[in-house]
Amino acid sequence: MAEDQRAGEHMAEGASETKPARDATQISTRPVSLVTWTLATFDTALFVLLGVLAAHTSGGLADLLAGLNTLVGVAVFCYLWALFVLAVRWVHGRVALDSAGVSTLALHGAAAGSVAGVVFLLGLFVVALVPTLQSGGVRLQAVLLVLLIGVGVAAVVGGVVGLLASLLDIAVYGLAGALLPEAETERVTEPRPR
Amino acid sequence: MAALLIRTLHVLAMAALVGGTTVLWYSYRSGAIATLAPARQFEWLFWGGVGVLVFTGVGNLGALGPPGPGTGWGRTLLVKLAVVVGFLGGSVVRTLLLVRASDHENTFDDLSPALRRTLSRVYGATAAVMLGIVVLAEVLAHG
What residue spans carry the Basic and acidic residues bias annotation (chain A) (predicted)? Predict the structure, then answer.
């Protein structure tokens, strides 16, 4: 993406930068670009909201939320959000959203989603089951079997979510480009002197 | 105590987003802002705020114990969730439009009138939809 490419160009500029240029450098050298932050948050919010919408229409939302402690829910959401940001960042670091083919982006999205799904499950496992294992409440073999199946399911579900999210991201990125006013393809005003 | 904190965060995040969006709409409309930089900075806050709104919103639902979709309250919640999903779709297009405009134009240069008009419209539409969501939230909270 041009935004990511500009980050490198700004870093190459020397100490002779003016204040606006330095501000632009600070913006573009953030560890996460605005596109990554936007799309990752959009994907996370949509994923959670569609889940809530599905649970509500089926009449099971109250039961689902009743068993969830508020702070635990916040922690799980933040963990999921962070994984989405890392996954989208990984994809955008390897594939340009504006020039790569749909299949390339979708494959990268599916791969990142698979890994994120497994990491999500393992994170929950560490928090929820390790204390129980240490106290001897559950047999290790049973947990390992469940974990093995869970990892497979999480990889598939994560891959599907990643694939759909990357297709959606490509669609909204293309739509944004189509809505851009014609004049923006050419510079209308003279740039300010630096 | 946690439920009160979550509710307060939810209200504060919504207030920040409605306020920021309205200021940007008016500023681009009146010409008080003529560059992309303030909008780009705001978009970082906007999407952080969206994340906060989602998890605090779900937290609020958990604290309330929502009735089924067949009740009046349940139907209003269904409408609100659908509007929020549509709002997110519109917002992501708005932010990416801004980013793609930055690809063509320096963030600190004066904007073309066409782009200023477009930004004014998209921020105006965002503010209007958010006000609609606030009304739906009031219906859910107070009937």
Answer: 1-12
**What residues does each domain of chain A span?**
1-30, 33-185
Least CB–CB distance from B93: residue in A62, A66, A172 = A172
Query: Which phi and psi angles does A129 have, rounded to 5°?
Result: -100, -25
- This prediction has a pTM of 0.85
Residue type, A183: A
Residue of A72, A189, A192, A194 to mutate when probing chain B, most B C-beta within 10 A? A189
pLDDT per residue as tens digits for the range A168-179: 999 999 999 998
Query: Mean pLDDT of residues grouped by 10 in chain B (143 residues)?
Result: 88 97 96 92 97 93 81 92 97 96 77 90 97 94 78
Structure tokens at B35: 């560059």
Residue B4: closest C-alpha in chain A: A70
User: Which ipTM value was assigned to this complex?
Assistant: 0.93
Please tell me if residue A178 touches chain B, with a CB cutoff of 8 Å. Answer: no
3-state helix, strand, coil in chain B (%, to 5): 85, 0, 15
